[in-house]
Design goal:
With about 400 residues, the protein is mostly helical. It has helices at about 1-5, 20-25, 40-50, 60-75, 95-100, 110-115, 125-150, 155-165, 175-190, 215-240, 245-250, 260-290, 310-325, 330-335, 340-345, 350-370, 395; strands at about 20, 55, 85, 100-105, 120, 375, 390. The strands form 3 sheets. It has a 3-stranded parallel β-sheet. Strands 1-2 form a two-stranded parallel ribbon. The protein has a two-stranded antiparallel ribbon with strand order 6-7.
Length: about 400
């Protein structure tokens, strides 16, 4: 039968590179689409085809739709690919409709194709598709970075509540938490919409919407288990060592109900230092999350810099709001803050430097891991000329390699 006739041709990697319409005649689904009841031999064939095939030649219109369905069902290791389909004729309409993104030609395309498509290229230039993909990736990246930044402050915000359970003086009030969330974080997070792309944005593998959600374990681990922990450490260090008298107040073992006026002022100053340190820590987190791998300051690489003017204005606004909240009388009453000596304002700057420095080191290690990538195999079509790099971060960093896998290179 046809399986036996073509089986020998399609056993190896190279033989899957080009598939013709004649080879697809016996490999269409039993119904209008592929189901879980398809023969195992057909399923295995399509899994290999969706993985290795580079060209489908001399196919009929129905074959185009079947190819899209096969990628949606068996692509990406059986999870299913997100498919885009281009076309300009009436016969392309079923495939354009089947794909997640149908792209029709605006100049030479028929009205039927345009109606079936999701996107119409006004200039019929395929390069516009690449530009659109880049803009889509940038929007997705910026949204994810905005979420990462917003989540970072939650650990140092909740830590004082648990600290009080262990007898620590109050370090942060609800009003100060709201001042950080509403007064600074929201506007800074919105400014991420104007962030420019990293240098290797289009070299990464696309994020699969099923396998890798926008908010996933890597994002939560980065925000809660990494940057959030660094911020919390810095805030507690500043609370005890930059705030005047807090360490003595803690060692005294006094209950808040037994505080004197002087003790209350000391605790209020401690809360002000904790709040100020968190503000600076969030600025450091915002700078750090503008890139996932590229160095912001040019540490052993091309600097990304601070190209987002709106985000830079937000940094200035956060600093000004923090200073005003600490020294302006009415805001002192509203947010339980108190004036601080100059040393208590300057020492927490070390938290900003520390977080940025640690992040630069992380990004440097990630880049070094990928630079040491080795070939994961030989491209049979190109005769071994294209050798995609494989990240060895998992070998070098162990479980922390998840920080590197955001920027996994695109295999050839």
């Amino acid at each position: 039968d046809s399986y036996d006739d073509e089986g020998e041709q399609l056993q190896g990697y190279a033989e899957f590179a080009v598939i013709t319409g004649a080879m697809l005649e016996s490999r269409v689904p039993k119904s209008d689409n592929f189901t879980d009841d398809e023969p195992d031999e057909l399923v295995q064939w399509w899994k290999k085809a969706t993985q290795h095939t580079r060209v489908f030649a001399r196919v009929s219109p129905i074959h185009k739709q079947v190819i899209v369905q096969a990628y949606q069902k068996y692509g990406y290791g059986g999870i299913g690919d997100v498919c885009a389909m281009t076309g300009d004729g009436v016969n392309d309409a079923p495939a354009l409709k089947q794909a997640e993104v149908g792209v029709a030609m605006g100049i030479r395309g028929t009205e039927v194709a345009k109606d079936a498509a999701d996107i119409v290229l006004q200039d019929d230039n395929f390069a516009s598709i690449v530009d659109g993909i880049e803009q889509g990736r940038l929007s997705s990246e910026n949204l994810q970075k905005s979420i990462m930044y917003t989540l970072c402050s939650k650990i140092p915000q909740v830590a004082p509540t648990f600290g009080e359970l262990f007898g620590l003086p109050q370090a942060l009030t609800v009003a100060q938490v709201l001042l950080i969330d509403i007064g600074t974080d929201i506007w800074t997070a919105i400014a991420y919409a104007l962030q420019t792309a990293e240098s290797k944005l289009m070299e990464r593998r696309p994020r699969h919407p099923v396998k890798e959600k926008l908010v996933n374990g890597k994002v939560l681990l980065y925000s809660y288990g990494y940057i959030g922990q660094l911020q919390m450490l810095c805030c507690w260090a500043a609370f005890f060592y930059a705030a005047p008298g807090i360490l003595s107040l803690y060692r005294s073992g006094k209950s808040p109900n037994d505080y004197s006026k002087e003790d209350e002022l000391t605790d209020t100053q401690g809360m002000s230092v904790y709040y100020w340190t968190l503000v600076l820590g969030q600025i450091a987190a915002a700078i750090s999350t503008t890139t996932k791998m590229q160095s912001v300051f040019g540490c052993c690489g091309v600097p990304y810099g601070l190209p987002n003017t709106m985000l830079n204005y937000m940094f200035i606004g956060e600093v000004v709001l923090g200073i005003v909240a600490i020294y302006f009388g009415p805001m002192q009453v509203w947010f339980d803050t108190a004036s601080l000596p100059l040393s208590s304002i300057l020492l927490p700057i070390a938290a900003f430097v520390f977080i940025c420095l640690v992040e630069e080191i992380r990004k440097l290690i990630c880049r070094m891991c990928f630079d040491d990538g080795q070939s994961s195999g030989v491209d049979a079509v190109s005769g071994g000329r294209n050798k995609p790099k494989v990240p060895v971060a998992a070998l070098k960093l162990g479980p922390w390699s998840c920080f590197c896998l955001w920027d996994k290179p695109q295999a050839s």
